[in-house]
Structure formats: structure tokens, C-alpha cells
UniProtKB/TrEMBL annotation:
Protein's GO biological process: cell wall mannoprotein biosynthetic process; protein N-linked glycosylation
Region ranges (Disordered): 40-61
Alphabetical list of InterPro entries matching this protein: Mannan_Polymerase_Subunit, Nucleotide-diphossugar_trans
Domain of life: Eukaryota
Family matches, as SUPFAM superfamilies: Nucleotide-diphospho-sugar transferases
Name of this chain's protein: Mannan polymerase complexes MNN9 subunit
Organism: Helicocarpus griseus UAMH5409
Localization, UniProt: Golgi apparatus membrane
One Gene Ontology cellular component annotation held by this UniProt entry: mannan polymerase complex
Length: 377
């Protein structure tokens, strides 16, 4: 049989190379990625993905080719969620309960992100949400956050989070400076914490999904926690629970590293604090941790046992909670407990949230001997 002129002129080596190239291309396409094969969680992550793009950002959504009917794009589906199937139990990890970690972020701390990535709770059940102010410092924080996210989400599969949402505030912050001294001035507290409440509520209402079991509020300047933070907090199976927030520092007298209390917003009311509240006007708020306004409340920060053999599971009821590392059952938020941006029983933000949760029938608790650590400026 006569061979065509084009084939007679083709170098046999070229044909062999073309065949090898085709085989290599097919192997590359159909082979699993090394990270997916090593972790074995690729298929599991796929099974927990959202079914359609209308799902809230609690779960990852893997975009498929658009479905068309009769040459037209199919209409959006009607989505039904069985919220009664959700659980929030003491064995959260083994029950595959989804955790939403929410962080108002004005500055980006590398230690915060590194600590977040080290959390041992399965990352395929963790979604992240951030809200960032539209300021020069906020823009820098957003850029640094996006760089960290890109590195983590393109790294090993087991380190990747299920989904990440970044919001930018639609209002100007009342205090431009984020320096610790400026943030904690007493005269700045009302407007600052009311603005923080608005930011927290915007973040919560945008990201809370129907499959969320737990919401962990984690401040952007919390740079050290146990890797088992989520398991340690959820195992108590409480509606609202908060650890003790401390800060590492170098003692100028001993020149040795030590720890000191940082968050004074977790407390039990006193007779004096209730008297002060009863005498306040409707728009006044009570603040904790300021010498100008002694309330004589029982502060969880002052009840800590720092000894090595302390009972980290010791638990106590609270009337107010701080928000540095606050674990909340999602049903508490679904019931309507949010962060009041107005005086609610003379409380705002996280302390006002505790008051609101209690009015809805939920109780708040604290772990005085379980520590998380705040960045030391």
C-alpha cells in the first residue's frame, strides 16, 4: 500500500515523541494530586461541599459546568435545609460538626494565622470569616491576610479550610488608630464598642450557614492557644463558653517572662454593679476594668490558677463574657442573640451579647484556668 507523501517526510523520532507526550498528558490528567492522595481527604471534602452556589459560605462550593435546559440556563434551584439534623455536642470532631471561626481584623498578626493553621480540629469542617475596616491600615491587613490565605489554601489539603469569606466594613471606624493605649481609653469605649458590635453582626449575619454547629469568635490579636482549642471548648457542651485571656510579658523587675490578665470582660455581677446599673440613664453603659468606675464584680481574670497541675476544665457561670476567644453554639445566634450596638441593660458588644443570651434562656460559662494569649504590643 502506498504511504502518503506527508508520512514519508515525517521523521520517525517525531512520531515517537508525540506518542510519549500524549501518554504523559493522559497520565497527568487522570492521576490524583500528590497532596490529595497523601491525605485521603479529597473525596471526603467533596462529599461535604455545598450542593449549589446559593448555599451560604459555610461549605465549599465546587463550581460545575452550567446546566442548561432547552438551550437556556436552568433557573436557580429551591434549596431546603434540615436544621434539625444539625448537632452541637461534646464530641464535635467525631460528629463532623462544622465550626465557623469569625474574626474582626484591623491588623494582621502572623502569629494569629500560624496559630490558626495549627488548630488540630479537622480543617475540612472549619470555615473562616473576616471583616476588615476600609482604612489604610485595614488595606494593609487585607493584603497580608490574602497572601496568607493563598499560601495555606494552595498547600497541603489537610491544612486547607473549607471556605473563607472576607468582608470590608461599610462604615468608617470611630477611632482611626489601632494602638492599644488609644483603643482602651475609657472615653473611647462606647463609640468603639458600638462600632465593633456593628462589625460583628455584619460578619455573623453574612456567614452563618445552615450547617454551622459552633461559632468561635477569635480576635485577630490572639496569637497563642492550645492546638486543641475547639475540642477543648466544645467538649463542655455549653451554649456560651469563654477561656481566660492572658498576655505574656517580660517583668521589668525580675527580667523574666511572666503572664498577666488581659481581658476583664468575663465577670459575675455584684450587688454594687447592679446598683450602678439601676441608677444609669437609658443611653449609659457600664464598663469593666477601669478604676474610674469600680463595680466590684467577680472577674474571671483574677481567679486563674497558673500552676502547672491546675484543673483546666474547672468551669464557672458568668454574667458577662469577653470576645477574645468566645465559643457559641450556632443555635444561640439563630435564636437572636447578637452583639447590641446600643445599650442593652447598660451593656454593649460581647457583654451585651451575654445579657441578651441570658434573656433568651441561654447560660454563659467560663474556664478560669484555661488560657489563650493576646499579642503584647
Amino acid at each position: 500500500m502506498a504511504v502518503s507523501r506527508s508520512l514519508r517526510r515525517t521523521n520517525p523520532i517525531t512520531i515517537v515523541l508525540a506518542g510519549l507526550l500524549a501518554i504523559g498528558f493522559l497520565v497527568f490528567i487522570f492521576s490524583p494530586s500528590p497532596s490529595s492522595a497523601a491525605s485521603g481527604s479529597g473525596n471526603e471534602r467533596k462529599s461535604y461541599a455545598a450542593e449549589n452556589p446559593l448555599s451560604p459560605p459555610t461549605k465549599p462550593f465546587f463550581k460545575e459546568a452550567p446546566i442548561k435546559a432547552n438551550g437556556r440556563r436552568a433557573p436557580p434551584p429551591v434549596v431546603r435545609y434540615a436544621l434539625n439534623n444539625n448537632t452541637a455536642t461534646s464530641t464535635s470532631a467525631s460528629n463532623h460538626e462544622r465550626v465557623l471561626i469569625l474574626t474582626p481584623l484591623a491588623r494582621f498578626y502572623v502569629g494569629y494565622w500560624e496559630n490558626l493553621v495549627k488548630l488540630s480540629y479537622p480543617h475540612e469542617y472549619i470555615s473562616l470569616g473576616f471583616i476588615i475596616p476600609k482604612t489604610r491600615e485595614g488595606n494593609a491587613a487585607a493584603s497580608a491576610l490574602q497572601a496568607a490565605i493563598k499560601k495555606t489554601q494552595s498547600g497541603p489539603v489537610n491544612d486547607r479550610f473549607a471556605s473563607i469569606t472576607i468582608l470590608r466594613q461599610d462604615f468608617d471606624p470611630p477611632i482611626v488608630s489601632q494602638d492599644e493605649k488609644e483603643r482602651h481609653k475609657m472615653e473611647n469605649q462606647k463609640i468603639r464598642r458600638e462600632a465593633m458590635s456593628r462589625a460583628r453582626n455584619s460578619l455573623l449575619f453574612t456567614t452563618l450557614g445552615p450547617s454551622t454547629s459552633w461559632v468561635l469568635w477569635l480576635d485577630a490579636d490572639i496569637v497563642e492557644t492550645p492546638e486543641t482549642l475547639i475540642q477543648d471548648l466544645t467538649k463542655h457542651n455549653k451554649p456560651v463558653i469563654v477561656p481566660n485571656c492572658y498576655q505574656r510579658f517580660r517583668d521589668p523587675e525580675t527580667r523574666q517572662m511572666d503572664t498577666r490578665p488581659y481581658d476583664y470582660n468575663s465577670w459575675v455581677d455584684s450587688a454594687r454593679s447592679l446598683e450602678i446599673a439601676a441608677a444609669m440613664g437609658p443611653d449609659e453603659i457600664m464598663l469593666e476594668g477601669y478604676a474610674e468606675l469600680p463595680t466590684y464584680r467577680t472577674l474571671m481574670a483574677h481567679l486563674a490558677d497558673k500552676s502547672p497541675n491546675r484543673d483546666i476544665d474547672k468551669i464557672m457561670p458568668l454574667d458577662g463574657v469577653g470576645g477574645t476567644a468566645l465559643m457559641v453554639k450556632a443555635d444561640v445566634h439563630r435564636d437572636g442573640a447578637m452583639f447590641p450596638a446600643f445599650p442593652f441593660y447598660h451593656m454593649v458588644e460581647t457583654e451585651g451579647f451575654a445579657k441578651m443570651a441570658r434573656r433568651l434562656g441561654w447560660k454563659c460559662f467560663g474556664l478560669p484556668n484555661y488560657f489563650v494569649y493576646h499579642y503584647n504590643e
